[in-house]
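Hello, quick one for you while I still have it in my head. My current little project is about how a certain protein chain folds up. You're getting the sequence in one-letter code plus the fold written as tokens. Would you mind checking whether the tokens look sensible for this chain? Here's the protein in full, and shout if anything looks odd to you:
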Amino acid sequence: MGTHMKILVIGATGRTGYFFTRKALEEGHTVPAFVRNPDKALTLLGAHQNLTIVPGALNDAEQLAAASSGQDVMVSILGQKATVREFLSSTFMQERLPLIMEAVVGAGVKHCVIMSAYGVGDTLRSASFLMRVVCKTIMRSIFRDRVKADAMVTKYQPYISRVHPGLLTDKPGKGGAKVVDVTSVAHVPGIPTIAREDVADALLDIA
């Protein structure tokens, strides 16, 4: 990890995005954080010589493309707000991911790391009965939205590394989170959980 990267972060003010951004800065990377609310971002992340707060909207292709220019990698750590409406019918990622990918890849970024969730798409086949129930009931709408969004950006597949963490917790990180290929996992018992801090570490390693 000796190389210094320029990492465009989308979702830097989220609970996982915060850990990721702090960690990337600590390791000496340059981070433009593309955020909706620059004041919130500055308060949360603090000033840092390698951090640039880039105000912008996720549906503004020009702003996204400008922020992406000259970056080595884009890391998307977007999560839905857990509102009742999102749980019933979410189109959050379908609306945003295709536009983000088009702008970012169009601007010349070769690698995009996208945080998804365990239970989405191919990962469901290794899930326990309990986890399947959760995916098909409580999380159904949000997961269906992610699956549809993934399908909409298949043409960008070579540029994308997808990360499927278990249920995110705010516990302190344990360190040493293992990153494995989804296809090599046969069965995951129970409902897997992981600290956001450990997910942030893994995302940075993948980037």
Observations:
- The CA atoms of residues 163 and 180 lie 10 Å apart.
- Strands lie at 7-10, 31-35, 51-55, 73-76, 111-115, 160-163, 167-169, 193-195.
- The mean pLDDT is 92.
- The longest strand covers residues 31-35.
